[in-house]
Design goal:
Length: 509
């Protein structure tokens, strides 16, 4: 994991002093944050969101969650299941929720800090299908899930594991065992657990404790995993999502609370109105986490965009998506929490549309100050498909972002006055001493891009970027070596899976 080239991991290749060393594991975003609103308008959005949850309320379908809200002092209507929340409760929750925290991997170099200027990327999440150039689009399998985990482990510009694609060849009541085992045995990075009921969540927590050799108390003091909680916009928290917030908060693990507010569909058609609803729903979920366990790590999530009003289909990478990202970043900073954003596309293929929609949405999130960008590699068809080729193409763009984050202010030597003086007017810098001392360390070497001229390109096989990406992911999987794991822990983990599977697994709630 420590040895990385610009293309990923090198196995058995010694470092040399003249080669450029690249490490994308601990990234900070130094770029100026782009605001969407003046401070007055930002505060107006916050106040309006507080008014929504105080006067209109949030419908909470989970009995235990309503009990928590009531015990904290919220007004709960048993008949309508509406919970109305005093703004003072929200203020208290924002005081206790940490503004920055660490998600731990199985080794220190895999730890990820969220909040502040820190930025982390994770790949496609929750797609039911997989696609590649060889076999086309098809339902995801456990093999596909494992392959994307391997790709995510290989590239250090991807910092967290994700739910990637659904292993539809495994029954749902057993699927979490196989997927969690794959994350724990194929990767050292913090991992993901679906909130599909307390029993499944507790199974995954138990597996994490076994794999990491932790007691219950040690596990609760050290966040190792995260979940994503989607509200049912408008103004509703369903049973499994509430239960997920409760279960993760109790265990001291991370909830990324993300309203899915599509303007014109599940949210007002104006971007400020959609952000008001997003903010209100997120605040309600954040409050629940802090009622359960003050100080529980939580991330302010956003996934606000617009829809095609002719078809109702979600649209991504649009001007509205970018504006919403700027606004969401401002709102997260306004309440002092880490922010989750996205890089998304509605394209059905890894084509030009996929690239420009990805880049527009990614720039919106980055300039908005995102701390964790989800769906940042391989996300296709509005989240319905994970694409192997697009995964590689997106990693190329993520590595480019990582290079942009590098500071340029590195001292007088880089101003190159002596180099300029050494080259006659009309000459060139290819062979001067300044260039020769730096040419192997100067620039980013592309993963997929081909910068050769047309003649070289045709001589080398005339492959498109997508075709080159196809060969890259195949080679990575062929060469992949799983990280070492203590044999005794592995044996315990597998014994747990066998026992729980024999007992019937865990149902989805």
């Amino acid at each position: 994991m420590n040895r990385r080239s610009r293309r990923g991991r090198h196995h058995g290749v010694a470092d040399t002093s003249h080669r450029r060393q690249v490490d994308y594991r601990k990234l900070k975003n130094p770029l100026l944050r782009q605001p969407a609103f003046s401070e007055d308008r930002l505060e107006a959005i916050h106040r309006t969101a507080l008014r929504v949850i105080e006067e209109l309320g949030i419908k909470v379908l989970n009995d235990e969650a309503r009990d928590y809200f009531k015990q904290a002092g919220a007004s709960v209507d048993k008949t309508s299941q509406l919970v109305r929340i005093d703004p003072a409760l929200i203020a208290g929750a924002l005081e206790s929720a940490p503004s920055e925290f660490t998600l731990y991997g199985s080794v220190p170099e895999a730890d990820v800090t969220l909040g502040g200027d820190n930025i982390a990327f994770t790949c496609v999440g929750g797609a039911p299908h997989i696609s590649d150039l060889d076999r086309g689009k098809r339902p995801g399998t456990l093999e596909d899930t494992r392959n994307i985990i391997k790709l995510s482990e290989h590239f250090d510009v991807l910092h967290l594991q994700s739910p990637n694609v659904e292993s539809q060849d495994i029954p749902v009541h057993l699927r979490h065992y196989q997927v969690t085992e794959a994350q724990l045995t194929l990767s050292r990075k913090p991992f993901f657990i679906f909130s599909r009921g307390s029993e499944q969540v507790e199974d995954a927590f138990a597996m994490a404790r076994l794999a990491h050799g932790l007691s219950q108390q040690e596990f609760e003091a050290k966040p190792l995993c995260y979940t994503v909680i989607n509200t049912n916009s408008p103004r509703q928290l369903d049973i499994p999502m509430c239960q997920g917030i409760i279960d993760f908060a109790r265990a001291g693990q991370v909830s990324v609370i993300t309203p899915f507010t599509l303007a014109g569909a599940m949210a007002p058609v104006t971007m400020p109105g959609a952000l008001v609803l997003q903010h209100a729903e997120a605040l309600a979920g954040i409050l629940l986490s802090q009622i359960v366990r003050p100080g529980a790590p939580v991330v302010y999530g956003s996934f606000t965009s617009n829809v095609d009003m002719k078809s109702g289909s979600p649209a991504f990478g649009t001007p509205e998506f970018v504006q919403a990202a700027f606004g969401a970043g401002q709102l997260a900073r306004h309440i002092g929490l880490p922010w989750r954003g996205s890089a998304a596309t509605a394209s059905n293929a890894p084509d030009e549309q996929a690239v420009y929609e990805f880049l527009m949405s990614a720039w919106g999130s980055i300039l908005g100050g995102v701390n964790v960008m989800v769906h940042a590699a391989g996300w296709l068809e509005g989240g319905l498909t994970g694409s192997m080729e697009k995964f590689i193409l997106d990693v190329e763009m993520l590595q480019t972002f990582a290079e942009i984050f590098n500071p340029l202010d590195s001292g007088d030597a880089e101003l190159a006055y002596e180099a300029i003086a050494s080259v006659d007017p009309g000459g060139h810098f290819f062979g001067c001493e300044h260039t020769m001392a730096r040419y192997q360390t100067a620039f980013y070497e592309p993963l997929v891009s081909d910068w050769s001229n047309f003649g070289q390109w045709t001589e080398n096989g005339s492959k498109t970027a997508t075709q080159r990406a196809n060969g890259i992911w195949k080679k990575i999987l062929h060469d992949f070596e799983a990280p070492a794991m203590d044999p005794a822990r592995l044996e315990e983990l597998q014994a747990f899976i066998e026992r729980r599977s024999a007992e019937g697994g865990a149902p989805v709630v």
